[in-house]
């Protein structure tokens, strides 16, 4: 009879541990520490994101209820109809009534979810409010540039065919509005105010991805993506990331996002507008917490920027 020995299993376990140690050490050095819950969604900070979360919660609890119901039924039948001495097996060829029920019920549920989800989709893709702050976002390998309206409250017109390394936004250098535009490497937005984004890509496809905003949209070269807008519900610091594999530096393509109060936003933007305009005194045309009549002047410009196929498509 072969004698059992602990030496071989122990050596195998030791070898496995030694192989795993370098992998664990490397992962601890390379991974970014998470501050939120791994299993739950990150906090939602936009109005439209709350609607998406509502749909996710409905689907989650619906699936959880179905899972519990099916597993309880499964265990019940395993126990009730288990094999027992002297009890013959009963073969069932199906039940038409039950077949109709469990085919119709999921169909109705899927139709209801499709209708509800389509309403949310249409709400997300509706035109941005007239009092929106229009910000031009240019993506490139491997970073982001943000362009804010100058002291006039209007962005300089763009032509995507002119976008390149020398002209990051495709603006006309001869246009006076071009010199007034405020360009920054961070996205600073006021809380409680709609923000309308114009998304561009200079080289390859990138993506504007902010989990806390529940926002993901590809940036395509030769096009202006002008349907994206949102409204933040709380202040805080977040991170914009590219979620498209866009090259060797994709892992580091990110930009800071700061959601601040309207007062803090004006303190950040107004000095930059005045510097570009060559004045140290606030101009009467400078936008400050715009009301609906003031914002109407920016709405047509947003329409021009997004609706002209001759300038914004190739």
Question: Strands, helices and their partners?
Answer:
Blueprint: H1 7-30, H2 47-80, H3 96-124, E1 133-140, E2 143-148, H4 176-180, E3 182-184, E4 187-190, E5 194-201, E6 206-210, E7 215-219, E8 229-231, E9 236-241, E10 254-260, H5 262-277, H6 292-295, H7 298-307, H8 309-312
Parallel strand pairs: 1-5, 4-10
Antiparallel strand pairs: 1-2, 2-3, 5-8, 6-7, 9-10
Helix pairs in contact: 2-3
CATH topology of the largest domain: Immunoglobulin-like
Question: Can you give the helix content as a percent range?
Answer: 40-55%
Radius of gyration (CA) equals 28 Å
CATH architecture of the largest domain: Sandwich
Q: Give me the oligomer status.
A: single chain
**How would you sum up the global shape?**
elongated
Q: What structural class do you assign from the helix and strand content?
A: alpha+beta
- Determine and state the CATH class of the largest domain: Mainly Beta
Mean pLDDT across all amino acids: 81
SS summary, helix count: 8
**Major β-sheet annotation:** 5 strands, mixed
Biggest sheet: strands side by side, in what order? Answer: 3-2-1-5-8
Question: What is the count of β-strands?
Answer: 10
Strand residues, percent: 15-25%
């Amino acid at each position: 009879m072969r004698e059992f020995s602990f030496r071989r299993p122990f050596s195998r376990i030791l070898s496995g541990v030694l192989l795993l140690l370098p992998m664990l050490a490397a992962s601890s050095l390379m991974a970014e520490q998470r501050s939120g819950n791994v299993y739950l969604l990150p906090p939602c900070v936009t109005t439209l994101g709350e609607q998406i979360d509502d749909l996710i919660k409905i689907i989650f609890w619906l699936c959880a209820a179905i899972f519990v119901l099916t597993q309880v039924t499964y265990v019940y039948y395993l126990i009730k109809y288990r094999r027992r001495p002297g009890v013959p097996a009963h073969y069932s060829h199906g039940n038409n009534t039950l077949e109709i029920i469990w085919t119709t019920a999921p169909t109705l549920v899927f139709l209801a979810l499709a209708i509800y989800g389509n309403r949310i989709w249409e709400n997300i893709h509706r035109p941005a409010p007239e009092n929106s702050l229009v910000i031009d976002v240019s993506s490139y390998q491997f970073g982001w540039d943000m362009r804010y309206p100058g002291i006039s409250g209007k962005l300089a017109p763009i032509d995507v065919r002119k976008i390149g390394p020398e002209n990051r936004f495709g603006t006309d250098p001869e246009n006076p509005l071009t010199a007034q535009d405020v360009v920054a490497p961070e996205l600073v937005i006021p809380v409680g105010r709609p923000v309308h984004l114009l998304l561009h890509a200079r080289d390859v496809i990138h993506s504007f991805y902010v989990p806390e905003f529940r926002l993901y949209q590809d940036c395509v070269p030769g096009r202006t993506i002008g349907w994206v807008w949102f409204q933040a519900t709380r202040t805080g610091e977040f991170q914009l990331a590219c979620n498209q594999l866009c090259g060797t530096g994709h892992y580091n393509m990110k930009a800071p996002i700061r959601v601040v109060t309207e007062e803090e936003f004006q303190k950040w933007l107004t000095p930059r507008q005045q510097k570009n305009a060559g004045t140290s005194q606030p101009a009467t045309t400078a936008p400050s917490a715009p009301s609906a009549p003031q914002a109407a002047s920016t709405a047509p410009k947003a329409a021009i920027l997004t609706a002209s196929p001759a300038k914004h498509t190739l």
